[in-house]
Write a structure and sequence with these properties.
Shape of chain A: globular
Strand content of chain B: 25-35%
Oligomer: heterodimer
Distance between the termini of chain A: 31 Å
Radius of gyration of chain A: 15 Å
Helix content of chain B: 10-25%
Strand order of the largest sheet of chain B: 2-11-10-5-4-3-6
Strand order of the largest sheet of chain A: 2-1-6-5-4-3
Number of domains of chain B: 2
Radius of gyration of chain B: 23 Å
CATH architecture of the largest domain in chain B: Alpha-Beta Complex
Order of helices and strands of chain A: HHEEHEEEEE
Largest interface: A-B, 34 and 37 residues
Number of helices of chain A: 3
CATH class of the largest domain in chain B: Alpha Beta
Chain lengths: 152, 403
Amino acid sequence: MTIDRNKITDLIYDSCALLDDERFDDYIALCTPDFTYRITAFSEEIRKPMEWMYQTRENLLELLKAVETHEVAVAHLRRVASMVRIGEAQNGIVPVRSTVSVYHTWYDGDTRLFAIGTYKDRITTDGDSPLLASREVMLDTRRLASGSHIPI
Amino acid sequence: MSRTEAEFTRPPQLPATHFVDNHVYYDEGVFAEEKEKILSKTWRFVLHESEIPEVYDYRTASVADTPLVVARGKDGKIRSFVNSCSHRGAAVLRRPAGNLRAWRCMYHLWTYDPTTGECTSRPRPEAFDAVGLRQEACGLREVRTELIYGLVFVNLDENCMPLEEYIGDSLFLQREMIDTVEMEVIDFFELNLKCNWKNWMETNMDLYHEFMHVANRKTSLQIPEYYTRNWHTFPNGHFTVDRYSVEYNKYPGWEDREDSLALPGMKEDEFQITDVFPDITFLTRGTVVRIDNQIPLSPTETLVQYRALGIKGESEEDRMRRIRDYHSIWGLFGRNLPEDCLGVKLQGDAIYGGQVPYTYWCREENNLSQDDIAARTWWKEWSRLMGRDQSQPFEPESTVAAE
């Protein structure tokens, strides 16, 4: 099977940009019906892997829709995905890893690094456009300056 | 009607116990004095014993700017030492946790025994012996360490009262859930908040702030019992509030909690808070215990540590459900914690510039949940230890401190 690398990198770009713009319905439209989303990290302190978020597509959409009702602690997050490595497809799933840096810009224009980590994606290429079957955000950063209602 | 400058800057017409002079949140001198009189003189929580389960396990910590290493010795006992080489002061252990049979400083290779803190070797020791600096005089400083219900506390003051006496009865609502089954830390993270450490502590004793939380407005604040709980106060500045049952299924995407996951003595949907002076909060939501403790870095910067406790040895499925319960509301990406972060940030933005003189802790409601009695209890202990009244901290004689 030939993989259209441009379509896959476009998907990763869109997944960042749509969350940046808080276009949550459009973000969810990039995901397969059985999509799962996780945020993980390894704790050097308790010497265990940790899972900080787990959502199905349906639950993630519920939470994202509720964001506008909350007092959101971050003004604007910018997700920068780079260093994209597209793996070999197996059973219609392409594993893709990329480095993600997230920057937080407060209302006054002050920008700080929010977190860095790795997107570990599984992408389907069955249809016209590739879709996210799952995303695991493996964070290097474990000491943050704030929590966030909007995932990364 | 808005207030004039004179009205804004004069002390509130309230009892001295019912307001705070905001200098106490940002003044460098007050912060230095807090480190001397409170943060290094009271019992400070550093870890749960499950974090160092094996002989030679260690975990680093920081108390009142003092770097510590807490370790389980070969005799199984937990001790704490200052994590600084006796020779040139470098931190001996630089990872937050690990297991080592000997601690060797990377700078000049001095080595220490993790059980006793004794210095066990110094390369080419003759030149030290020549000036009378004997190896047996070069051990690490040991720090007083005691446990209660698996919680490990240290106190930099060797002459302090025993931990059990300090805690008293304040953990009576926590005890059954954390001390009748074996518990372990199942999650850990930190927030580096641009706030005074007391502002974070206040979020955990101010239930009136819960209107800020959308999740609480949907699941808790519509319940009459929420408002009729009582605060209980204890000697040494501790307090706890009665439980109530949360209606989790009222928040979009949430389900009721699993009763099979309820901690001993708790219903799965119950919520309870206990604060231990000066900086520890135990928050329990039926299936999981959260512990906050703080490492003040400057008057306006605080590292807050968050631990979740679950039941040791449970199935992987139960563990994951418990962790997901925890993170759904209290995680970095949960529903409530980001709002608490925003609350203290906005306080700091407005107060720390020095032009907003006073804030209130004046609600009186027969010690019920949204009465400010908890904060007033905390501040009374702060005033006693500091010898300063929080409402007029720079007056020579304090009425509160004199009580």
